[in-house]
Amino acid sequence: MGGRDSDLVLLDENGIRCDGRKVDETRNISIKAGVLKNANGSAYIEFGDNKILAGVFGPRDVHPKHMSDTDTGIIRCRYHMSPFSVTERKNPAPSRREIEIGKVIKEALRPAVMLEKFPRTAVDVYVEVLQADGGTRCAALDAASVALADAGIPMRDMVSACAAGKVADTIILDVNNEEDQAGQADMPIGYMPNLGKVTLLQLDGVLTPAEFKKCLETGIEGCKQVYEIQKQALKDKYFANGEQQ
Amino acid sequence: MGDNKRRFVIPGEVITTGPYRPEQNVILEGKKIIATKVGISEIYDDSVKVIPLTGKYIPKSEDLVIGKIISHSSLSWEADINSCYVGMLPGSDVFGRNFQPDTDEMTSKLKKGDLIAARIVNFDRSRDPLITIADRELGKIDSGELVRISPSKVPRLIGKQGTMIQAIEMATNATITIGQNGLVIVACENPDGLLKAKKAIQMIDEQAHMANLTDKVKAMLESNSV
């Protein structure tokens, strides 16, 4: 979205952004694990004004059967935006964009999930966006990762995601909807914080190599902050009563 | 037992570094030993493991499971063992060595819907787990009530060296068969005892993470309310 003109001041002279944040600050994030009874694992995330629900099933039988793999399990992901998640009603039928984000989330989770332990089975991840405000793919990935851990599916690491971007020629952390629309670049990053590996990297916009490097470092810093919140969400569910022997 | 340190862990968390053998639910990544599930980590003299607090049942050789017959062919039965795989019970296991698929009627021994106590004989992930009912404590279950609990809470229900389950059995006079897959059969001649034992099992399922659960269960069993 190459720098469209608008009245919106994305970054004022004091380095404060349009929603009052500093350049290296994320929005308020809160995660709750285990919110759905019927799913094997679930999580609810509020990432600024994004509200997203994730449910996980599995490992379970694969239907249709021909999709199953005799060597390993498979992971499937459906990303869906509710009709009321945006200001104009969104057609609930899966759009090109939703199919793509489902694929991207699936591929960002796959390196973390130890699917080879369950050949001929499937792990299904369902992500429902209740309210969208920019950066839903990152927020959805954060919720999906907590839901997978809640379902007890073996994972090499959690996946934490956060976007970084460029507005008014400055690198910023956690791009919101306005900054995404009017800014110069948006780069969602998925990261495995303990293994130090990147599982999702997309870039919309133009960055110089130096800016790209800075952007990546900023984004990874954000992922690490998100990880602490994911960790707390799981600890709150499982260890709240503080049994320690 | 050395310093048997216990800690709460989530997937990806580094439990320790050093020359330890990774056991259940942990992986070795370089020198780091990493948890793969939400649970409690335990470090022994030479090994590390994580006791999971959530997750489905994954069959393991030698596990005792409770299964429900869902279908059969002329050669074998299929049993739902509360897992992502179905248990295969070969006909020869029930009819003996001179099992004749063309003459022996499968439904004469086990019908759809029957409950069985079975043992996992073999599971190599490339085929469905093979189960057997040819042993003294195994076979078709004729009486008792079925209680479902989360498979990850089975160790808690058994307790250290079986203390928890013995406490329940002693207090209620019930016979309890625990399947590692989270299905439990409670049989008791006295209806009050049956209800009490069921309540105790459900209580453990709900409060598995609480400290001194054994005392709480004992207190509940000793009280007269059902």
Task: Provide an overview of this structure.
The complex is a heterodimer of chains A (245) and B (226). With 245 residues, chain A is α+β, with helices and mostly antiparallel strands. Chain A has a single domain (29-239), classed as 2-Layer Sandwich (Ribosomal Protein S5, domain 2). Chain A is built from four helices and ten strands; from the N terminus they run E-E-E-E-H-E-H-E-E-H-E-E-E-H. In chain A, strands 1-2-3-5-4 form a five-stranded mixed β-sheet. In chain A, strands 6, 7, 8, 9 and 10 form a five-stranded antiparallel β-sheet that branches. The longest helix of chain A has 31 residues, at 209-239. With 226 residues, chain B is of the alpha+beta class. Chain B folds into three domains: 6-52, RNA polymerase II/Efflux pump adaptor protein, barrel-sandwich hybrid domain (OB fold (Dihydrolipoamide Acetyltransferase, E2P)), CATH 2.40.50; 64-140, OB fold (Dihydrolipoamide Acetyltransferase, E2P); 145-222, K Homology domain, type 1 (Ribosomal Protein S8, Chain: A, domain 1, 2-Layer Sandwich). Chain B is built from five helices and 16 strands. Chain B has helices at 91-95, 154-158, 163-172, 191-206, 213-222; strands at residues 6-9, 14-17, 21-22, 26-29, 32-35, 39-43, 47-52, 64-72, 76-80, 86-90, 115-122, 130-132, 139-140, 145-148, 175-178, 183-187. In chain B, helix 3 (163-172) runs antiparallel to helix 4. The A-B interface holds A 40-41, 58-61, 70, 112, 114, 117-121, 149-158, 192-195, 231, 234-235, 238-239, 241-245 and B 6, 8, 10-14, 25, 27, 29, 32, 34, 36-38, 52-56, 58, 84-85, 125-126, 152, 209-211.
